[in-house]
């Protein structure tokens, strides 16, 4: 299953990450492993989800450094105090987030042969394509302006 | 047929919708429903994230975007950028009020908020048929 219907029997992972391409790729990997996934772009969004979605989240996988009113450590502290039933995994880098996602996959509803380097490579490709397209987009704008 | 998607396993016959919405609870509701309907769904909190996803090479078939989202790209510029760089992508705008003429000319559809989720899904399916 990939990006398809949520599996009601599966556990729900709240992925908190401000880099959209990392968040998207990690969330997708977890969905492929059978988890329901909620995506939050920062800790403020994560708090809104946790306060409005009390029963449905089981695991929080969060980055550490994030913009907003709190970082990953502060989010973990809030969860420990207010939602001690939740499992919290903090990942201070992309490779650690990938490793954590793979460990969840190995014990998830659809354990398979998931390779951490495949996900890391996918994230690198997405970022490289974005950088190249941004560059060519700016170059095109520049040359268009020069022709006028 | 090779339909390998850079955001997941190979997809066959699935269409990808990008939902750009700054309200996390609304985004959750809409993306959940679209996934239940069998769509691939990518999520963006604002216009900048939406463009990031476009530029990353993920194949997107339809964009559902809120207007008046925060970010360095405003809604009109997002619509214009998508139209200029990705002319085949369907563009649906959602708002609590009717958008300006300039924006309406850029889009394939307009949806009033708050969402009627079943009507929204029917509308999206009709656009992608």
Question: Descriptors for this entry?
Answer:
heterodimer, A: 148 residues, alpha/beta, 53% helix, B: 129 residues, 5-stranded parallel sheet, globular
Overview of the molecule:
The complex is a heterodimer of chains A (148) and B (129). Chain A has 148 residues and is α/β, with parallel strands linked by helices. Helix content of chain A is 53%, strand content 14%. Chain A contains five helices and four strands, in the order E-H-E-H-E-H-E-H-H. In chain A, strand 1, helix 1 and strand 2 form a beta-alpha-beta unit. In chain A, helix 1 packs parallel to helix 4, helix 1 runs antiparallel to helix 5 and helix 4 packs across helix 5. The model of chain A has no long low-confidence stretch (mean pLDDT 89). By secondary structure, chain B is of the alpha/beta class. Chain B has five helices and five strands; from the N terminus they run E-H-E-H-E-H-E-H-E-H. The longest helix of chain B has 13 residues. Chain B is globular, with a radius of gyration of 14 Å. The chains are: A alpha/beta (148), B alpha/beta (129). The interface between A and B is medium-sized, with 31 and 33 residues.
- What distance lies between the first and last C-alpha atoms of chain B, to the nearest angstrom? 20 Å
Oligomer: heterodimer
Total number of beta strands of chain B: 5
Averaged pLDDT of chain B: 82
List the total number of helices of chain A. 5
Q: Which structural class fits the helix and strand makeup of chain B?
A: alpha/beta
Helix content of chain B: 25-40%
What structural class do you assign from the helix and strand content of chain A?
alpha/beta
Unreliable spans of chain B are 1-6, 8-13
Beta-strand residue percentage of chain A = 5-15%
Number of helices of chain B: 5
Radius of gyration of chain B, in Å, reads 14 Å
Our measurement of the CA-to-CA distance between the termini of chain A, rounded to an integer number of angstroms, reads 50 Å
- The low-pLDDT segments of chain A are none
The pair of chains with the biggest contact is: A-B, 31 and 33 residues
Percentage of residues in DSSP E strands of chain B = 15-25%
The description of the largest β-sheet of chain B is: 5 strands, parallel
Order of helices and strands of chain B: EHEHEHEHEH
